[in-house]
Write a structure and sequence with these properties.
The complex is a heterotetramer of chains A (342), B (414), C (291) and D (257).
Chain A: H1 8-12, H2 16-30, H3 36-61, H4 69-87, H5 91-113, H6 118-138, H7 140-143, E1 149-150, H8 163-186, H9 189-199, H10 201-206, H11 211-237, E2 239-240, H12 247-260, H13 265-281, H14 289-303, H15 307-312
Antiparallel strand pairs in A: 1-2
Helix pairs in contact in A: 2-8, 3-8, 3-9, 3-11, 3-12, 3-13, 4-5, 4-6, 4-11, 5-11, 8-11, 9-11, 12-13
Chain C: H1 2-30, H2 37-54, H3 59-86, H4 90-111, E1 130-132, E2 135-137, H5 139-161, H6 163-173, H7 175-180, H8 185-211, H9 217-231, H10 237-258, H11 263-277
Antiparallel strand pairs in C: 1-2
Helix pairs in contact in C: 1-5, 1-6, 1-8, 1-9, 1-10, 2-3, 2-4, 2-8, 2-9, 3-4, 3-8, 5-6, 5-8, 6-8, 9-10, 10-11
Chain D: E1 5-14, E2 17-27, E3 32-36, H1 43-51, E4 58-63, E5 66-67, H2 73-78, E6 81-83, H3 96-102, H4 112-117, H5 120-140, H6 155-167, E7 173-177, H7 188-202, E8 205-209, H8 213-219, E9 222-227, E10 230-235, H9 237-242, H10 244-254
The chains are: A mainly alpha (342), B alpha/beta (414), C mainly alpha (291), D alpha/beta (257).
Chain lengths: 342, 414, 291, 257
């Protein structure tokens, strides 16, 4: 893909960041005025965006086919809600604490994960996810077991802000900040290291990229995103139960990044929206959601292996580049063959 | 745990539509998103009660249509739909057709909240009949209370749905606490001295286990064994061995049919035959006998039915045909029968709410349902303003190996 | 007590092994894991039920139907679904199969889900327990164990002695080289998915009397089967058998000696521990040379 | 003169089978050392052992007199040793420029937080990296390809980018595993010239594995011959060419084939 010349169209075409911010601003203004169902969906969207962006960092950018994201989402939700319920701490404390707890667990699972590749990693993280669910169900003194538990939702400082609007505002803010942070990160040396690990572990290592550190960073970051999303979910629902963190949700999150585009931040955002739209749109579809969801997943992988982001790449200004190059110096008349085939 | 106090939302369901802004310079994507949101915020026709038009009444239903719990959602709703069809065929309620809007909650709290909000605020239903899974329905309870929508719970059994009393929620399902009381009473009545509990630790199992343990404690009984079997288990040897060692003479079984069948099969394998007391999750002893598959293994198995017939009973012929006609690949099941019973209660209340129904009138009618007979439930249905547990009749059923299903007794729990 | 537990562990393990064998077979030929394997098994099981219970055909006919149905289902899945992604990265393949798993579950729920909660399947053999001294066995469990052994034996012979088997092995080892020596890689892949799914069909007909049939049986069996396959090293048929039995026995022992609530989790803890100690499973080779 | 890179008694066995044994060699700074030997002689294994991808089971490797054996590959790379691979190992998801900038990884100080915030330090480093990458791309003759996706290049072009990526961090030693694969024979003089320029203009010590014997003979300052995991000869190209042991082990069968 060669650099395109700057045209009028290129300059007028809104960049992803502007489209995203305008959409977010519209959401911020319209959602609280809409009915409480749409507000809820908008809130869920923000949470899904955080989840999808975080998962894409690990799966799309670093190439680690882990299946523990739903469990980490749950750890964030449980951590946030339980600190609130057991110790009465305010959300301003428990939300970051829940996210950190998820991060620590994420880092912990990255250590054995370093030795595991491909499907072995998949199984190990799958086992971890099932183990986590088991703990949610059985550690009843702490987690209240299968029945779940209610979390009092905070009154927000600003007057007139209901818990619904307040948690939506916070989720939206965090979704914006965390998406921008991820978009910035993948363009940095850390992001390149992650991509290098995905595209060739051995070569990456030979260039001085520390595999353990890079993978641990990806696991930890991804877990932090999942944990934050979990805390927001608890805040939004006012209710935490194990059903929300099972393998169906893992599949849901995978579907978001596949539909949106692996290794694409814009794709993560769009994928989260698309999957939520599908779930809500087909809610009343007499039991065919599963089929539609499965077909979407298969179809996306088969027909659009690069997801929606694959199409967007073609829009001027939307190609996801990690480095914006300075205009290259005039090429020398070829010193060495440009084309040579054996 | 009591529900958290809530701050009333500033959102007015009849608020004006978002002002249409000039969108000339916004990109296509943004305008599409805005249009969607704006369209969605249009208020419903603000005439009369929500969901009621000149010729129809919209009733909402939430429950699992997909996922492992679909039995408690889709199949129950099919029963509801069958009743609605019959009512509509007979001219509807005061000339209005009943329309059922289904929303899937996949047995998940978050999805259930979204589903009820959608029903209430988006679909603008008049009343709700639904609730398949305990945790999902518990999560939805807050939304229903907040919006004061008359609601009949048709399958979820958690006590927390009706206790403490939510003003607009009644349940025609036999709540788990009632079944627990009945199970313990039955065991004692049969002279059991050493009672053991075998349960699943999922939300369904938990919603039964907790009140059961409380009831045992209240009666001063300590179970001699307390074992778990997972919903997908294919083996229960360890549990059976432990129960045998504890010499339990009665086992209260809080399991779905599959793990229940595995348990009884493995018990039979060791020739261990205590009195086994099931609950309404295993409501068809004939099917259960086949599922166990070992002759004689169910000889001392007795279970609770919420309904007084089996799907094969001659009394059910009409509904059997109705279900088969509407859903050709289905057979009438007890889950359909739950839906039939609860829909009949709702229909009666709607009738009593009069030709110009309001939610208040419907709620009053529901709370005033007294000794209402249905085609399926074990006993008459009675709701009161203080107690939303309208179905209190436990029907004990048993099937002698090779013989017919017998109703061995009914217990009306106070 | 120990003998009872071991025996029950082995008979549950045989179920897992039967699932694992199909997973390993597909892996050996395609290098991927079919997340829809359990759901293909479930569909084939319902098919067998329809033939045997619904239409009253003899058991063996139903079993043949399940095998044939599984074969067709696997072949179609490969041709329509997976072929396009098999050359791509692993993540996409896994997700395509996961998508199929949801489709099959949904279809089963709509087709058979309204009949009853759990469909019973009449056993092939008389249901009375066999008691030999201290040993108590349910005959159908013996049938499942024998079935697992037979399937494994058949595949061992298949891979060792038939051209097709060798071609499959070669394809998995090095698809490019296989193509160069004239092996039609696509056909091999299709065959592998078809045969893997047919094995699932046979397994379904064998185990249905023990496990009962319901739309969600597939994923549980798949997870255990996947675990068994990985524990066994993913490419080894005896490894799959051993892995399945190991998981079954671990579960039974955890249930007997720790607590019945530990059964479900013991398998997962065992998997995590095993993979930490032996990243390539019990019978898997040494870690791949990374250059 | 101390050796830039020295290998002492290096041995490596896989499950009891010795792939390398007692390999000893010392390469002075700014020398091109050719490593040849028949297939299976252990050439690539030797490179893997030196750069730490497969840790040797015996012996040690010294870089500027410092032992590096047992360090992680990334730590060894950080000390100024780079390698290229037999089959192209570019990161397919990145552009050519990005690939080359990735070669600078060890020298960068920007951390996670810099990345998230897009800090000034990060931007400064990146700008400098882009500059360096352009220069080195120009050096290998790939300046016009900076914005191409790496996976879209021909095989020969990929090898050149890989060399650029190895050079960009100004390493003292580069291990080249068959850099001429994919290049047609009549272009060999170009790669020959490039290797000499790497040595002369950048002062890099090169260890070169190459099947094209003509290239090795022409470009190498000295040659080490491996057979069955051991060194059977070492010396200047013309000495090695005439060494009877080499001729029987290798040259006699392959060079004129």
């Amino acid at each position: 893909m060669s650099a395109r010349p700057e045209t009028l169209l290129t300059r007028l075409m809104p960049r992803p960041i502007w489209v995203g911010l305008v959409a977010a601003a519209l959401l911020a203004v319209l959602a609280p005025q809409a009915n409480s169902y749409l507000l809820f969906v908008a809130n869920q969207l923000c949470i899904y965006v955080i989840l999808a962006v975080g998962l894409n960092l690990l799966v799309g950018y670093t190439g680690q086919l882990a299946f523990a994201h739903a469990a980490l989402f749950g750890i964030g939700a449980y951590g946030t809600a339980l600190l609130k319920v057991h110790f009465g701490l305010p959300f301003i404390v428990t939300l970051p604490a829940g996210a950190l707890l998820a991060t620590v667990v994420g880092l912990a699972i990255s250590l054995p994960a370093l030795r595991l590749t491909g499907l072995y990693l998949t199984l190990a993280t799958l086992a971890f996810a099932q183990f986590t669910l088991w703990v949610f169900l059985h550690w009843e003194g702490v987690t209240f077991g299968a029945g779940g538990f209610r979390v009092p939702r905070p009154d927000w400082l600003l007057p007139g802000l209901s818990p619904d609007v307040g948690s939506f505002a916070l989720a939206l803010l965090l979704a914006i900040v965390m998406t921008l942070a991820a978009a910035s990160l993948v363009r940095s040396n850390t992001g390149r290291a992650m991509i290098a690990v995905r595209d060739g572990e051995v070569a990456a290592e030979a260039l001085g990229i520390d595999l353990l550190r890079t993978k641990a960073t990806a696991f930890g970051l991804s877990a932090f995103y999942a944990g934050t999303a979990g805390g927001l979910q608890a805040l939004m629902l006012g209710y935490v139960a194990p059903e929300s963190f099972d393998l169906f949700h893992m599949a849901l999150m995978k579907a978001m990044i596949v539909v949106g585009g692996m290794g694409s931040i814009v794709g993560s955002v769009i994928g989260a929206g698309a999957v939520l739209f599908l779930l809500e749109g087909l809610r009343a579809f007499k039991g065919a959601q599963e089929i539609a969801f499965g077909l979407l997943l298969m179809g996306a992988v088969i027909f659009f292996p690069r997801g929606v982001a694959g199409w967007l790449q073609a829009l001027p200004g939307w190609a996801e580049r990690y480095l914006r190059t300075a205009p290259p110096p005039a090429p020398e008349p070829d010193a060495v063959p440009e084309e040579a085939k054996p | 745990m009591p529900p958290a106090p809530r701050v009333a939302p500033p959102v007015n369901p009849h608020s004006a539509p978002a002002e249409t802004e000039p969108m000339r310079r916004l990109s296509l994507l943004v305008s599409v998103a805005a249009a969607m949101l704006a369209a969605a915020t249009l208020p419903a026709r603000a005439q009369g009660a929500p969901g009621v038009t000149a010729d129809s009444i919209r009733i909402g239903s939430f429950g699992p249509l997909t996922g492992p719990g679909y039995l408690y959602g889709r199949l129950v709703m099919n029963g509801v739909e069958a009743v609605f069809d019959r009512v509509n065929a007979q001219g509807g309620i005061h000339g209005r057709r009943l329309v059922l809007t289904r929303e899937d909650d996949r047995c998940e709290p978050a999805a259930a909240i979204a589903a009820t909000r959608k029903l209430i605020h988006q679909d603008q239903v008049f009343a709700i009949i639904g609730g398949g899974c305990s945790n999902a329905a518990l999560a939805a309870r807050g939304e229903i209370e907040q919006a004061s929508v008359p609601t009949v719970i048709f399958a979820a059994v958690a006590d927390g749905l009706t206790t403490p009393r939510a003003p607009t929620i009644v349940s025609t399902a036999l709540t788990s606490g009632l079944e627990g009381v009945a199970q313990v009473a039955y065991a004692q009545q049969q002279g059991a001295r050493r009672i053991a509990v075998v349960s699943m630790r999922d939300a369904w199992g938990r919603s039964r286990y907790t009140p059961l343990m409380e009831e045992l404690k209240r009666r001063g009984i300590t179970p001699v064994a307390d074992e778990e079997v997972s919903p997908d288990a294919n083996d229960a040897t360890a549990q059976v061995l432990r129960l045998r060692q504890a010499n339990a003479d009665a086992v209260i079984l809080l399991l779905y049919p599959k793990p229940g069948a595995v348990f009884l099969r493995d018990a039979a394998k060791f020739g261990y035959r205590p009195l086994v007391i099931g609950q309404s999750g295993i409501a068809d002893p004939a099917a259960f006998e086949e599922q166990v598959g070992v002759p004689g293994a169910t000889a001392r198995f007795v279970t609770i039915s919420q309904v007084r017939f089996t799907p094969e009973s001659p009394e059910m012929a009409g509904w059997r045909e109705a279900i088969q006609a509407k859903y050709p690949s289905d057979r009438l099941s007890v889950f359909n029968m739950f839906g039939i019973g609860s829909a009949q209660v709702l229909v009666e209340a709607l009738r009593q709410a009069g030709p110009n129904p309001t939610r208040e009138a419907l709620m009053q009618a529901l709370n005033g349902v007294t000794n209402l007979g249905t085609d399926t439930y074990g006993g008459p249905i009675t709701c009161t303003p203080t107690d939303g547990r309208c179905n209190r009749t436990v029907v004990w059923i048993q099937k002698e190996p090779g013989g017919p299903i017998r109703i061995v007794g009914t217990t009306a729990v106070e | 007590m120990l003998s009872y537990l071991l025996l029950s562990g082995i008979s549950t393990g045989a179920i897992y092994a039967l699932v694992a064998l199909g997973i390993v077979l597909v892996y050996k030929a395609t290098g991927t894991i079919n997340f829809a394997h359990g759901d293909q098994l479930m569909i084939a099981g319902f098919l067998a039920w329809t033939l045997h219970v619904g239409l009253g055909l003899p058991y063996l006919v139903a079993m043949a139907g399940a095998v044939a149905g599984g074969f067709v289902l696997g072949a179609l899945a490969e041709r329509i679904g997976f072929r396009a992604v098999l050359r791509g990265n692993l993540v996409n393949v896994v997700l395509a199969t996961l998508g199929l798993a949801f489709v099959l579950k949904g279809v089963a729920r709509l087709t058979w889900g309204g009949i009853s909660d759990y469909l019973a399947f009449p056993p092939l053999v008389p249901p009375d327990p066999i008691i030999i001294g201290d040993i108590i066995l349910l005959p159908q469990q013996l049938v499942v164990t024998a079935g697992a052994l037979a399937v494994m034996g058949a595949f061992a012979l298949f891979f060792r002695f038939t051209t097709m088997g060798k071609a499959m092995q070669a394809t998995a080892d090095n698809p490019k080289a296989a193509r160069l020596v004239g092996i039609r890689v696509e056909n091999i892949h299709m065959l592998a998915f078809a045969v893997g799914s047919a094995v699932a069909g046979a397994g379904a007909a064998l185990m249905a009397p023990v496990t009962l049939l319901y739309p969600d049986i597939g994923f549980m069996l798949f997870i255990k089967g996947f675990a068994a396959a990985v524990l066994g090293g993913l490419t080894s048929l005896p490894g799959a058998l051993l892995g399945g039995l190991a998981i079954g026995v671990v579960e039974a022992l955890a249930g007997g000696y720790i607590d019945s609530s530990a059964i479900e989790v013991s398998a997962f803890v065992a998997i995590m521990a095993t993979l930490i100690l032996r990243p390539r499973g019990l019978l898997g080779g040494p870690p791949p040379r990374r250059a | 003169m101390t050796a830039r890179i020295a290998v002492e008694g290096l041995g490596l066995s896989f499950g009891g089978v010795a792939a390398l044994s007692g390999v000893t060699m010392a390469v002075p700074p700014a020398e091109i050392r050719g490593i040849i030997g028949p297939n299976g002689a252990g050439k690539t294994t030797l490179l893997n052992a030196i750069c730490g991808i497969v840790p040797p089971t015996e012996g040690r490797v010294l870089l500027d007199g410092q032992p590096i054996t047992g360090l992680k590959p990334s730590a060894i790379a950080a000390r100024g040793l780079r390698r290229t691979f037999q089959t192209s190992a570019l990161f397919g998801g990145l552009t050519v420029l990005e690939n080359v900038v990735t070669g600078l990884h060890t020298g960068l100080r920007a951390g996670l937080l810099d990345g998230i915030l897009g800090s000034r330090r990060l931007r400064a480093e990146e700008a400098e990296g882009i500059e360096k990458a352009h220069r080195v791309l120009e050096f290998v003759g790939m300046a016009g390809f900076a914005d191409r996706r790496a996976s879209a290049l021909s095989f020969g072009q990929q090898r050149l980018v890989e060399i650029a990526r190895a050079l960009v961090s100004e390493p003292s030693v580069v291990l080249l595993d068959e850099p001429a694969v994919g290049l047609s024979l009549n272009r060999l003089s170009d790669i020959d010239r490039l290797l000499r320029r790497i040595r002369d203009e950048r002062g890099v010590t090169l260890l070169l594995i190459e099947h094209v014997i003509r290239l090795v003979m022409e470009v190498s300052d000295s040659i080490t011959v491996l057979a069955a995991g051991t060194v059977i000869a070492e010396g200047r190209p013309e000495q090695v060419r005439q060494d009877p042991a080499v001729v029987t082990a290798y040259l006699g069968t392959a060079v004129h084939a």
